[in-house]
Amino acid sequence: MSATPDRSLVRTAALALVRDRRLLQTRSAGASVFYMAGGKLDPGENAEQALHREIREELGVGLREVAELGVFESVAYGHPAGTRLHMTCFHADPTGEPRPSGEIAELGWFTVAEYAAQPEFAPGSMLVFEHLHSLGVID
User: Fold this and answer.
1) For labelling alongside 24, which of 10, 89, 94, 126 has CA 20 to 30 A away?
2) What does each C-alpha distance from 107 to 19, 49, 91, 100, 136 come to in angstroms?
């Protein structure tokens, strides 16, 4: 008997890219909320493999010097009630200048206060903001 994927858990990989003490967030076409750059793991992928694939698709760049920042768990914003997010977050250096690509319509660079002031925000992203702020990396 094969294992059935747990649909109440969304596993993602995300990039924590900081510039000028602000954290990069992306907004998909047709969406109003900014999220961490990255996305869901495909079957058979580990988090770092998914990160490289998603960042190439979303930002049009490769990554070097990839290191895990941590795992962040929260409610999965935009999913049915009871769905949880399991986000493995990495920091890395992009191989070029990130730009909106694929389904991404816009990039935004935010401080914690600027992100929290958005009409809507993703709880998983906010956990990363708070973590980086506690480390003194972002404002």
Assistant:
1) 10
2) 13, 22, 17, 6, 23
